[in-house]
Amino acid sequence: MIARRTLIGASIAAVAAPFLLTSLERTASASTPAVLDVELANNSSSDTVYAYVLGLDLNQGNQWAFLEADGSTLYHPPSPAAPGAALGADCAITLPARGAASRRISLPYLASGRIYFSIGSKLTFLINPGPGIAMPSVANPSDPNIATSYSFCEFTYDTTQLYANISYVDFASVPISFNLQTSGQGTQTVQGLAAGGLETVAAALRTQAASDGGDWAKLIVPNSSGGTLRVLSPNTAIASNPALFSGYLDSYINQVWTKYQSTDLVIDTQASWGSTTGRVSGGVLSFPGVGSFAKPSTAAVFNCSAAPFTTGNDEMGNLSARLAAAFNRTTILDNPNQPDGENPALFYQQPHSNHYARILHQTATDHLGYAFPYDDVHPAGVDFEGRVQSSVPTVWTITAGGSSGGSTTPPSSPPPTQGGGTSAFATIQAEAYTSQSGTQTETTGDAGGGQDVGWIANGDWLGYAGVDFGSGGATQFRARVASGAAAGVSGLVQVCLDSPTAAPVGSFAVGSTGGWQTWQTVPATISRVTGTHTVYLTFASGQPADFVNINWFTFAAS
């Protein structure tokens, strides 16, 4: 896991950067292609869209480089004599008109990279001595790009893998979605915000502000026509106006500090240090032999790197990341064992929480995407941050303007694999079972329509023949579930192979989601599965009552 930091709106020199993977984080494999095919597609409402691709050139000593307008030539800006120099080359890659065929570019090895998309006009990048790149900044009112609609995604592409994610850490604006084709590992997708999703986010923030009196509506930046240009994260907004959200989380933070005066807080560093136990004493949360944390402020929680949090790649840095995630998700008061990541339905449930992150996850078509700096804190094999990652990438398609249709389900007809089975990496509709026991289908109220499978209780199962995991295999499982079960009624959704009585390769727990048609997407880690199998979803509960409905499920590679 990468303890990631995002650098925004500043002159960035070629130093150790957040997306430059260390040798310990790389997997041994054959080298990836020296140049990766990338397709840039326009699904926006405009025929005028530009892309900018930049990063640290791994073949030239980690110098900053841009792809030029031809989409293949690298340009290394020289160090100017004074700050604010022009870029010096045309690096605006013009996308096709909306709905037209995508444009293919060639991506070389670049680390700590970004791909920007701007709508209607080009972006301005300035060069400072070093050289350093002055990135577009949404926090600087005098920035030359302040009135332009733009977004970016982040990536590193090196000899070992492609790793990329959609980021809302600083702001949300132009929707971006991913489709990554790989050799032998299926297709990975991150759907991001749907077209029109930004206005949905803005409306939800206004509703939240009316509900709790917080400054959520002040995160919305309008455009010249009265719509939404972008939505700032709390951290970005506070950087410009420190008075925002003053004391908003203080009551929750105080309750946490009180609880852990008499209760152990156990944090799994998910690294070689293992789990560490701390308690609050004298107003300080101490982890003996490691370090301590003063009580954080609301601004520090949203920022994730202001004192008392640290950002080093050491044990304190790992503790900081997990503490910051637990505070943003407001799970630390209820769960003394962190990170809490098995059931994201439990995140953001306190009246005062990081509702920006909650709303973005709820609005994103597949509920994925970085919404605060440590949104990559989770159990191994689970993905909240909206990443694609592969050591064998073949074609990476990035679409500006959002996934079409706004459905919370990917396409309903999974494509067959070369072997004639159903791809494990496509979306498998629950009602497409080839065998079952004890269940019934019904019309679903979930977005996308169709049917779901309900009346599921202990001992029931669903079978799906010919599911092909390929040679690379899968270590992740994700399912769309709903539950109107009574208080105290819950159960497990389990994945078994080739027999409904086989030992599960993975599972997740589910209780009431608030209604039989109140849908949530829940991830789980599974043991690596390769080859072709009959997949059985089996259901176990300590109570006889129905406890879950299921609409669809899918698998993913780690």
UniProtKB/TrEMBL annotation:
Signal peptide: 1-16
Keyword Signal: yes
Domain CBM6: 426-556
Region (Disordered): 397-423
Domain GH64 residue range list: 28-396
Keywords, in A-Z order: Signal
Top-level taxon: Bacteria
Metal-binding listed as a keyword: no
TM annotation in the entry: none
InterPro entries: CBM6, Cellulose-bd_IV, Galactose-bd-like_sf, Glyco_hydro_64, Glyco_hydro_64_fam, Glyco_hydro_64_N_2, Osmotin/thaumatin-like_sf
Pfam family, one: Glyco_hydro_64
Name of this chain's protein: Beta-1,3-glucanase family protein
Originating organism: Streptacidiphilus cavernicola
